[in-house]
Amino acid sequence: MGRGSLKKRHNKPQNFKSQPSMASSRRKAKSYLTIPVLLSAFLAIGVIGLLVISSNKWRNIGYMTSYEMVSVVNEFPHDPEAFTQGLLYAENDTLLESTGLYGNSSVRKVALQTGKVKLLHKMADSSFGEGLTLLGDRLFQVTWLQNIGFIYDRNNLSQVGKFTHRMEDGWGLANDGKDLFGSDGSSTLYQIDPQTFEVISKQVVKYNGHEVHNLNELEFINGEVWANVYGVDCIARISPRDGKVVGWILLQNLRAGLEAAGTTGIDVLNGIAWDGKQNRIFVTGKLWPKLYEIKLHPIKKTLEKGVIEKLCMRERLHFGRS
Ligand SMILES: *[C@@H]1O[C@H](CO)[C@@H](O)[C@H](O)[C@H]1NC(C)=O
Ligand SMILES: *[C@@H]1O[C@H](CO)[C@@H](O)[C@H](O)[C@H]1NC(C)=O
Ligand SMILES: *[C@@H]1O[C@H](CO)[C@@H](O)[C@H](O)[C@H]1NC(C)=O
């Protein structure tokens, strides 16, 4: 989505787990003392002790978290003037990309290896390009602060249609080969009929019971919807069935690398593309001079509570319309 300040920070994390009740572990002792009663007493004390220890553990230490760190397999040039809003891989080392900003919005065919723009459709100055997805031989694109989307021929990028959708706004698009998935900057993931543009279903995306707002560029990968979250260097892996975040991909090292190399003026991480045949994952950002092929390294460990929330979740940002 569009430009905006990122001043807002996520709320202080609250208690994520409720305390188990201890009432049920109490036992009434009869008037005589026997070995079983003593044993029960010891057991009861043990259970209470464990409950106290584990509730403190939840409060102070954290919980098991699955997340993924990434390493860079390849880096490619990326147009540093492309305000990337939609990205996908389309055979033969070719990317299709949608860019934003009024007066500079476009749909382009880009050579992966060189970053060179091979074909460009310039959008009207009044349109702000957003998410893009390829379904069959048609490219679907949404626009910012409008309910209007465009359909293009995948080969020559000429506009062949227009549609109106029922999301609050147009941010991200993906598809599973049949239906569209859309995001509008809220925590809702929409499943949309590509013929009627009616909403088939909606899921509120949640991590540990908390809504994940600002869902942005989307990609459908192996049954999951991967989403850039606006303003953070994290990708949420979402189960489209129930909206649960099943994992996080942490990409803070990419920005750090660009900054260490002296790059300035880059905007947010945005853009996920997947080459299903060769199982390659590509990511970039708005005005980033590089596009990265990344490899995931799954990690499962106990993190201090709130770490992922602080890194990857923000309050909902409101732009333009409210
Ligand atoms: C990919 O390259 C092959 C061989 O050059 C060509 O036949 C095919 O049409 C290309 N596909 C696309 C989508 O450009
Ligand atoms: C559009 O991009 C060009 C560079 O390609 C840049 O010079 C210009 O300032 C941009 N315009 C807007 C409205 O962002
Ligand atoms: C682009 O391709 C479509 C077919 O999807 C065709 O109808 C149209 O004439 C082509 N446009 C140009 C400019 O070649």
Describe this structure in words.
There is one protein chain. This protein has 322 residues and is mostly beta strands. The chain has helices spanning 35-60, 252-260, 307-312, and strands at residues 63-77, 84-89, 94-99, 106-111, 117-122, 129-135, 138-143, 148-153, 159-164, 172-175, 180-183, 188-192, 199-204, 206-207, 210-211, 215-221, 224-229, 234-238, 245-250, 269-275, 280-285, 290-303. The protein is 13% helix and 43% strand. The strands form 5 sheets. Strands 16-17-18-19-1-22-21-20 form an 8-stranded mixed beta sheet. The structure holds 2-acetamido-2-deoxy-beta-D-glucopyranose (NAG) (3 copies). The site of one 2-acetamido-2-deoxy-beta-D-glucopyranose (NAG) has 4 residues, from loops.
Shape: globular
What's the tally of helices? Answer: 3
Decide which structural class fits the backbone: mainly beta
- Indicate the CATH topology of the largest domain: Neuraminidase
Largest sheet geometry: 8 strands, mixed
| Biggest β-sheet: strands ordered side by side in the sheet | 16-17-18-19-1-22-21-20
Unreliable spans? 3-60
Each distinct ligand: 2-acetamido-2-deoxy-beta-D-glucopyranose
The strand count comes to: 22
- What is the architecture of the largest domain at the second tier of CATH? 6 Propeller
- What proportion of the residues form beta strands (DSSP E)? 35-45%
Order of SSEs: HEEEEEEEEEEEEEEEEEEEHEEEH
CATH class of the largest domain: Mainly Beta
- Radius of gyration over alpha carbons? 24 Å
Percent range for helical residues? 10-25%
CATH superfamily of the largest domain: TolB, C-terminal domain
| Measured distance between first and last alpha carbons | 15 Å
Mean of residue pLDDT?
A: 85
Number of domains: 2
